[in-house]
Amino acid sequence: MTHQFSTLTAAQKKDLNETALRIISPGKGILAADESVGSMAKRLAQVGVENTEENRRKYRQILFSADDRINLCIGGVIFFHETLYQHSDNGVPFVKMIKDKGILVGVKVDKGVVPLPGTCGESTTQGLDGLSERCAQYKKDGAVFAKWRCVLKISDTNPSNLAITENANVLARYSSICQQHGIVPIIEPEILPDGDHDLKRCQYVTEKVLTAVYKAMSDHHVYLEGSLLKPNMVTPGHSCSNKYTPEEVAMATVTALRRTVPPAVAGVAFLSGGQSEEEASIHLNAINNCPLVKPWMLSFSFGRALQASALRAWRGHKENENVATEQFIKRAEVNGLACQGKYTGGDNSGQAGQHVYGSCHAY
Ligand code: 13P
Questions:
Q1: How far is the CA of 277 from the centre of ligand 1 (A)?
Q2: Which of 21, 79, 197, 338 has its CA 20 to 30 A from that of 106?
Q3: More confident residue, 359 or 205
Q4: Does the annotation mark 230 as catalytic?
């Protein structure tokens, strides 16, 4: 019989739970600004900007210099290692700029996706070696939560049982290590939207993956109240010919979560997964209006769906910086409403309706 020897004290658990709840308190979500150097290369190339450390710093400064309006709709920012130690033009550490707004600092701690030999193109995520030491250091440097992303694919044969169990296990091991250091783990088992599968197939796979994830969390004694889930929304594959309404997407998403995610989990913050900014907001709004009992906050942890318009507005030009910051604030405010089911907008004009989809997206 399994046995749990106590590892976290009552005070540590309270601290983890309070941090997790603060990150996605009502009306608030997460800015995922943790693109690796390689992912930033792709983002910056789209707008003709060279991928240098200085350009990455300038771009992040546009996001982090948003004024107090974002304090109401952003509860946490996920940094990449490099960004955690960068400063504004005036020499203010980015971490301080974020903390001074009352926003919590998180950091991506995985070391990227690697192939799982013997599968049909599937992967696991590496980075457990040295993770304990990295968490201890990041905690000292101001981070109170972390992110680890695993990737699963849908095809006629994928995801395999191996990919499901391996990725669930590595997410649980990561979560356990984070919690030992007082860091709230964000658990991200992203199922990619590549393929022509329909909504039902995505729902089925999402249920199987999340079931395995929470079995592994139990096996590893992860304290669920001190953790957040970052799942994909349940959507049809990008090449699927059927169209679904936001209400159908919402019903499939909430049904999948209700069947698999324990109510003890502190909260859920969806990734945007290449949806357009507007589509992601409309889906999030519909999810929050879905007429099923939802025991968790259902919020956002968007990367592309918070940044696409800002990036296009900037294009590397100093004179565009303020407009770019305004674009980011606008998306943050829209999603702050959507995570409460209060977004009535519909901004399909211009940039916000444009897809930001890239096949087999790597973060
Ligand atoms: P997207 O919202 O762009 O999918 O990214 C979120 C994220 O952090 C992926 O790890």
A1: 12
A2: 338
A3: 205
A4: yes
